Amino acid sequence: MNNDTAGSEHILVCVSPSPSNPKVILAASKMADAFHAALTAIYVKPTDYDRLPEEDKLRLQNNIRFAEQNGASVTTVIGDDIPAQVAEFAHISGITKIVVGNSGMKRRYFWSKPPLTEQVILNVPDLDVYIIPDSAADLKQKKESARVSDQIRPTFKDFIITLLILAAATGIGLLFTHFGFSEANIITVFILAVLIISVLTVSPLFGALGSLASVLLFNWFFIDPRFSFHTYEAEYPVTFVIMLISSLITGTLANRIKRSASHSAREAFRTKILLDTNQLLQKAEDPEDVMKITAGQIIMLLDREVVIYPEGTPAPAENENVQHHAICLNDHCYGVIAIKQDRSEQDPFENSIVMSILGECALALDNLRNAREKEQASVMAKNEQLRANLLRSISHDIRTPLTSISGNADNLLSHYRQLDDDTLRQIFSDIYDDSEWLIDLVENLLSISRIENGRMKLDLSLEVVGDVIEEALKHIDRNAYKHHITVKDTGDILLADMDAGLIMQVLINLINNAVKNTPPGSEICIESKQIDNQAVITVCDNGPGIPDDVKPHVFEMFYTGQNKVADGRRGMGLGLALCRSIIEAHHGSIDLTDNHPSGCCFTVALPVREVKFDE
Question: Which CATH architecture has domain 270-373?
Answer without folding.
Answer: 2-Layer Sandwich (3.30)
